[in-house]
Amino acid sequence: MDFAVKIGSFLVVLGILVTFHELGHYLVARWCGVKVLRFSVGFGRVVWSRRIGADRTEFAVSALPLGGYVKMADEREGDLPAEDLPRSFNRASVWRRMAIVAAGPIANLLLAVLLYAGLYVAGVPGVKPVLAEPSPGTPAAVAGIAGGDLVTGVDRVPIGSLHDLRWRLLDASGRDRVELAVSTSGGSEATRVLSLAKLTSDDWEGPFMQKLGLSADFGAPLIDEAVAGRPAARAGLRSGDRIIAVDGATVIGTATTDEGAASITARLAEAGNAGHGIRLDVTDGAATEAALAGIGRPAVLIAGGDGKGQSFVPLKAAVDRACRAVLLIGRDAALVAQGLAGSKASIEHLGSLDKAVARAFAIAQPGDAVLLSPACASLDQFGSYGERGERFAALVRERLREGSPCASA
User: Fold this and answer.
1) Same structural domain for residues 146 and 175?
2) How confident is the prediction along the chain (409 residues), in pLDDT tens digits per residue?
3) Paired sense of beta strands 299-303 and 323-328, if any
4) C-alpha count within 13 angstroms, C-beta hemisphere, residue 31
């Protein structure tokens, strides 16, 4: 089926190119006073035709859709009626014949210009400039850029994609610094001064974004479809799940959209060669709902992750039953908050796990539970849910040592 779609698409595109090419020849021939006998899309046997106009030009579709032609009156191809002799191609001036021959390629060039103009008027897809947590010591880290920050401008020039960010930084090569306007994961607006002083000319010729500590945050690989009857579906994977680890090994990719998928492929191949099954760590809202349903006491929930395509009805019901407050972290906090709008629990946006834990212990009552949602695993600030869980546990232990009466689950 996929092969048939590709062949069909190829023929449609080729047909459009051929039609415009031959239309160029046809229109200029008419303009130059040369009689056109046939306008054909395709070669070989005519499968459909119709005669139109005063000249009774035959417009045809032929059997082989790999080109086309415009047949004009020409004495070199046979005898012509006396009234058509002045309008034959061979009797046209050299300049008119040159114009007719050149009109086809020029028509294709004009088509390309129109298509590209229309494409850019409509807009082209691009990756939002949401940044991953920069490596310590890089210019981005020194500038105070954090994971989940969305870059909205460079030196007061608005940008809308990662491609725009790259080109604006390239344009600033040779300067000491640039100002980045960012929208933080907590929803506030800020300006970060990014130093470019340490980059050499060789750095600018290579992966300079990496040198600066700037990389896109794509989160964990998202499953688009689990084919029924195949191993993934039988294992319980479903559309919308995010894979965060294979046999405990993190597969979250932040540098490119393919990195996470490549990591999964490598892990699957390794497991297949060893002849054993694999364990996929998957994050979704169901795990959070189950945890809240079984807690049996009021809770403060720290949640995050990707809310796109998620049904919030069951999660909202669980939050209403069990939660005193929900503290949101990550770039999709606003989307999750919208899904939980109207909940009985208070909803707050926090910029980091550290801030969320501090806030949780500030508002929790004696005997409350502080929960870290498994959905946080799709955020890559700490690389995986395991690392995030360890960080969460360490922060909780620190709070408990400080004498907080709150219990942790």
Assistant:
1) yes
2) 678 888 989 999 999 999 999 999 999 999 999 999 999 999 999 999 999 988 999 999 999 988 999 999 999 988 889 889 999 999 999 999 999 999 999 999 999 999 999 988 887 778 889 888 888 899 999 999 988 889 999 999 999 888 999 999 999 998 999 999 999 877 789 999 999 998 988 889 888 998 999 988 776 677 778 788 887 777 777 777 777 666 666 554 544 344 445 555 555 555 544 444 554 544 445 556 655 665 666 777 777 654 444 445 556 777 787 788 888 876 666 667 777 777 888 888 876 777 887 888 788 777 677 777 654 433 333 333 345 455 566 665 565 555 444 433 3
3) parallel
4) 13
Are 251 and 336 found together in one domain? no
The answer on 58 and 24 residing in a single domain is yes
Is 266 contained in some domain?
A: yes
Same domain for 298 and 386, yes or no, is yes
Please name the amino acid found at residue 181: A
Instruction: Flag whether 225 is in a domain.
Output: no
**Which amino acid, 301?**
L
Q: In whole angstroms, give the CA distance from residue 289 to residue 294.
A: 9
Is position 224 within any domain? no
- Verify that 81 and 100 share a domain, yes or no: yes
Which residues have a catalytic role annotated?
22
Exposed, middle or buried: residue 139 (CB in 10 Å: 0-12, 13-18, 19+)? buried
**Is residue 226 domain-resident?**
no
- 17, 116: one domain: yes
Kindly list the distances between the CA atom of residue 120 and the CA atoms of 114, 116, 159, 160, in Å, as whole numbers in the listed order: 10, 6, 15, 14
Domains: count for the chain:
4
pTM: 0.45
CA-derived radius of gyration, the chain: 32
- Do residues 390 and 291 both lie within one domain? yes
Domain that holds residue 386: 284-401
Strands 242-246, 280-283: pairing kind: antiparallel
